[in-house]
Amino acid sequence: MWSYSGDPAASKLDAYRYAIGDTAVDDPLMTDEEINYVMTKYTNENRILYTLFDMLSVRFDIDSVNTKLGPQSEDASKRAELFKERVKYYRTLLSFGGTPTYFQGSDKVFTKELFKNA
Predict the structure, then answer these.
(1) Would you call 68 helix, strand, or coil by DSSP?
(2) Beta carbons within 8 Å of 56's beta carbon, 6+ residues apart
(3) How far is CA 90 from CA 25, 31, 33, in A?
(4) pTM for the full model?
């Protein structure tokens, strides 16, 4: 099933659909179920977008068929390249995001009065 209200603020599904450019009724990119699956699997928004764009880049790589009709032609690999660029962008965000490991579950880093002037 495919749905889009036209308002990305209406739901997270619509927000992600808007972010990946899947708003055209005549040319749906992903089903509601596919996007909802990714949203239940991950909680980080950048991770969700990374996964959605990765799925789309693979899909368009597989389906990339160049067509030519008279003077007009369509290069389907261009669409795959666009999604691959978005995958790279979100991969970069994921690699720099998060809490530094030395703060995760560790005790205090500094002792009390460590920097007190004597």
Answers:
(1) strand
(2) 20, 29, 30, 83
(3) 26, 21, 22
(4) 0.69
